[in-house]
Fold this sequence. Notes:
The protein has 419 residues and is of the alpha/beta class. The protein is 44% helix and 15% strand. It has a single domain, classed as Glycosidases (TIM Barrel). It has 14 helices and 13 strands. The strands form three sheets. The protein has an eight-stranded parallel barrel, surrounded by six helices. A three-stranded mixed β-sheet has the order 6-8-9. The protein has a two-stranded antiparallel ribbon with strand order 12-13. It binds beta-D-glucopyranose. Beta-D-glucopyranose is lined by residues 20, 23, 185-186, 189, 242, 284, 334, 372, 379. Keywords: Glycosidase, Hydrolase. One of its GO terms (molecular function) is beta-glucosidase activity.
Amino acid sequence: MTKKTNTQFPKHFLWGASTASHQVEGDNHNQWTVWELENAKSKAAQAEYHYSDYPSWDFIKNAANDPDNYVSGDLADHYHRYEEDFDFLTKMNMNAYRFSIEWSRVEPREGAWNIEAITHYKQYLAALRKRDIEPIVTLFHFTLPTWFTDMGGFEKRANVKYFVRYAEKIVHELGSDMRYIITINEPEVYAFESYYLQNWPPNQNSIWKYLRVIHNMAIGHKRAAKIIHSMNRKFKLSISKNSTYAYPGDNAWLSRLSANVVQYFQDDFIIKRFIKSCDFLGVNYYFTNRVYGYRIHNPDLKLSDLHWDMQPADIEFVIERLNRTYRLPIMITENGLADAKDQYREWWIKETVVGIQKSIASGAEVLGYLHWSLLDNFEWAYGKWPRFGLVAIDYKTGRRILRPSAVWYGKVIKKLRKL
Ligand code: BGC
């Protein structure tokens, strides 16, 4: 159990939660929705094979065996119900919220801007500002218009210009209410899952394509950043990097060497391609990896519903290392767990908040902590059964309920913000 520290959080620290368009909005039309419909049946048929050893299997099996679980469909209908969802931020005493713009809504056909969708996101931002909530706007969070993926997506260097044009359009239209911008969410996760592991559309398995996609996204980030910075220096940009903490499980030279190699390839190999055009570093922290010899073997002390090993306190070391290495302020843009029964969430948040506090005490500059997620959402290839929300969603009725851990967390934020 993590020990408390008395360090104060900075006055303007951002306390918030995150979502992404495709995971909560409902009724999207992009490369994911096409893929979901093509794959739902086979995913349901393979569920038992993949997940039956999960601690959560007994209560997830009905959902996991159902093809409907793998189709995003209407979800929480956040696209229309965002005002009531934002009220939960206020209830939890939060002052920040990260979300993504759905490119496929804004530019449904190449070069054709959808004014209604742009107006929607203007109203969305205004609804946050009205509540004194700082928006952190992501431009690309894994979903792309089908016209863009039909052209080859980020595999083709020539397509980068479309992303840059979209980024410029968004900032031109919505910039008055924006300050923090995440150009790309987890470029390395997107490229790895889609172009190497074959888990996500377009199900490719090529290390060269993986590297090319990262390279092209880095060019897109750099070009978008140059344009956005020239529009106004008030804009603060970053990517969101999924960062794991790797440590040697024993003192053997091989374990120490491997931990460094793992850390390098998971973090620095990617970050160095983007960092020059970043004003801060967005970090998504979910995992720690304990390395023995040349293998990763975690202690499995506590497992989330997704069978992920939970070591939330290690966020302290992730922040300290990245802040020291890149000398930029860190913003935790995602961090959380799948926990349908809400049995670990309070513990997880407590460990995390103390971990962040300790990193600040040791000199790190941290802008904020955005929990993943505000709402239960569509967890990509796993579908709807993993429950990451501070707010629980009943997908049948659309009913929203603040989970007990979130009620507790709201009180903690109130105290820490001295409200
Ligand atoms: C992604 C989210 C996802 C979360 C939990 C992050 O890697 O950005 O979209 O839901 O992890 O898996």
